Amino acid sequence: MAREQLQVLNALDVAKTQWYHFTAIIIAGMGFFTDAYDLFCISLVTKLLGRIYYHVENAEKPGILPPNVSAAVNGVAFCGTLAGQLFFGWLGDKMGRKKVYGMTLMLMVICSVASGLSFGQNPKSVMTTLCFFRFWLGFGIGGDYPLSATIMSEYANKKTRGAFIAAVFAMQGFGILAGGIFAIISSAAFEAKFDAPAYEVDPVKSTVPQADYLWRIIVMVGAIPAAMTYYWRMKMPETARYTALVAKNAKQAASDMSRVLQVDIEAEPQKMEESVSAFKLFSKEFMHRHGLHLLGTTSTWFLLDIAFYSQNLFQKDIFSAIGWIPPAKTMNAIQEVYRIARAQTLIALCSTVPGYWFTVLLIDRIGRFAIQLMGFFFMTVFMFALAIPYDHWTHKDNQIGFVVIYSLTFFFANFGPNATTFVVPAEIFPARFRSTCHGISAASGKLGAIVGAFGFLYLAQNKDKSKADAGYPAGIGVKNSLIVLGVINFLGILFTFLVPESNGKSLEEMSGENEDENETGAVELGPSGLNKRTVPLA
Predict the structure, then answer these.
(1) In this predicted model, what pLDDT tens digit does every residue of 167-219 receive, in sequence order?
(2) 162: burial class by Cβ within 10 Å (0-12, 13-18, 19+)?
(3) Which H or E run contains 271?
(4) Among the four residues 73, 89, 321, 417, which has the most C-beta atoms within 10 Å?
(5) How far is CA 22 from CA 154, 161, 391, 421, in A?
C-alpha cells in the first residue's frame, strides 16, 4: 500500500495559482528566451559573414560561407547543447537544481558576449574563435533544458503543471521574435547611416566596413535578458522535492515552501529508513519501471527534432519563391540582413508563436498524449501533402499553397510534440533521476536536430550533381527528402504510445516514489517516537 505524500509536497500539488508561479515562469523562461535568441540569431547573419569574410573578386554573386564553415558555425552550438544537456542534467540531480542553475546562465552570458568579440587576423581565425565560443554557449544552453523543466515541474501544482512547463518552453517563441525584431531595427539603423550600392552595382562598396559591427551587436545582445534574471535565479530556493526526496531534509523543504507559498506548512520529522538500497539509474529495477518511458521520451524527441530542424532546408527556397527575399546581387549586405530578418520574423509570428501558446492553453485540458499524437499525425499528413505532388507545388501559381501547408506543419509541431516532448520527461521520472532523464531525452532530441539540419542538407541536394549547391555532393532531392520526413513523423506517432499520460497526477504518483518509500520500509516518527500520519493540506 502506498504511503501518504509528505505534507509539503501535497501543499505544492494543491496550491492555488499565485504570483510566485508566474515569477518562476519568467525566471525560468528568460533562460529559454535567451536560448532561442542565441541559437536563432546566427541564421540571420550567416549571409553577412559570407559577404564580409569570403568575398571573391569579380564574382557574379556575393561571397557565401563554404559548406564546411557554414555547417560548423550553425552546428557547433547544437553539439555544445547536446553535451550540456547530459552534463548539467546529471549535475542537477547530484548537486541540486538551484546550485547548477546559476552556472548555466553565467556561461550563456559570457559566451554570448565573447561570440560577438570573435577576433583574428584572417577569416579562418575569426570563424574558429566564433565556433569555439558558440560551442560553450551551446553547453550553457543545454543545461537550461533539464533544469528549467525540472524546476518548473517541481514548483507547480498538479492542476496547471503542464501549462506552466509549456509556458517556460514557449518563451522560445518570444526569443525568436526578439532576435528577428532586433535584427530588423539594427539593420535599418545601419542602412540609414551607412548608404551602400547593391552588389551588382559595386561589389566592394556594397559591404560597408561597419557591417562587421552589425553581426557582432546582434549576436551579443542575447546576453542582456539572461544577465537581468541572474539575481532572481540565485534568490529562488531549492525545489521542495529535491530537498525532501533527494537531500532528505523535509524540515528545510517545509521552511522554504512556507516562505514561497505564504502558508504555514508543518515541518515534518525526518524519516528513519531501513537499509534497503534504492535502485540506481539504468539498474534492472529502473529499466523494469521506467525503461520503456525513457525509450518513449528519447525516441519521440529524436524523431520530432529531425523533422523540426529540417525546415532550414526549405526556408530560403520559400522566401525567394514568394518574393520575400530578392536575389542577393540586387541588395547590399545590410539590406540582405534586413530582408532575411523580416521574413523569418513573419514565419515566427504566423506559425511558431501561436503553436506554442495553443499548447499552453490546452495541455491541461486535453492532456499531453492527445496533443503529441495529434501533432505527429498532422505533421505526417502535411509532409506527405507537400511531398507526393511536389512538382505541382513548384509551379509559380501554387507557391502560396506550399507556404500555407509548410506553415501548418510547424504550427502542429509547436502545438504538438515540440512542446510535449519537453514537458513529459520532467513529470514521469523519480526526483533523484528527473533532471538526468530529462537531459538524456533532450540530448536525444539534439542528436535528431543535428541529423535534421545537416544530414538533410546533404540528402536534399539535387540528384544531378551539376545542379547541386556549390561544394555539395548529389543527394536524393527535395521530394524524396520530404517523403522520408513524412515516414519519420509517422514513426513518432507509434513511439508516442510508449509515453504515459501525466495530466492531473502528482509527480510522486507518476514516478512511483510513494510506493518506493513504503517498500524501503520508511517509518515516519512523531516527536514521541510513535508513528505519525501525515495530514494532507486541504
Answers:
(1) 999 999 999 999 999 999 999 999 999 999 999 999 899 999 999 999 999 99
(2) buried
(3) strand 271-272
(4) 417
(5) 14, 12, 48, 22
